Amino acid sequence: MIKNKMPKWDEVGLIVFDFDGIFTNNKVFVNNNGEEYVCCSRADGLAFDILRKFINLNKWKLRYLILSKEENSVVSCRAKKLSIPCFNGIHDKLSFLKEYIKNENLNLNSISNKFIYLGNDLNDLSSIEMSDFSIAPKDAHPIILKSVDLVLPFDGGNGFVRNFIERLLQMDQMSKKNLMQINYAMILSFLDS
User: pTM of the predicted model, to two decimals?
Assistant: First the structure.
């Protein structure tokens, strides 16, 4: 289901990801010590390597971050592993986003600086409404499914983020040469680390 056309990658200046239900399947495992564990997709993790290489190759001024209500450190640990800025324990996402945009001097009214939000549940609704384009996984809350611009045919935590990034970068339309440039840049960065 598509309500509005997804912006082209070079029109996007900010991408905000919710965590639970986006990077995870929205389930939590709890051991007898009360420690929580979540399941994330490695495919989603590789998508950020691809995104970073694409950003560098194209000199794209993009900011992206995770914004989560969840206070558990598992959110920040996964974000750190993926090298994604993370703000968790945020109960009023809309106020946070307004302040973040103001503090970072992001001019999101510009045609080349659109804001994309990825969320799946009711606490994402105000951020979805604030965004220029919003996306949800197919297993999102029914109200969210009706509210977003695009529903992807993936469940959260099951390749949803990877599918979004590949769509945004239009990887299916890239030449083999461009795909190889991204792959080569990824290989070089692994050798440098």
Answer: 0.88
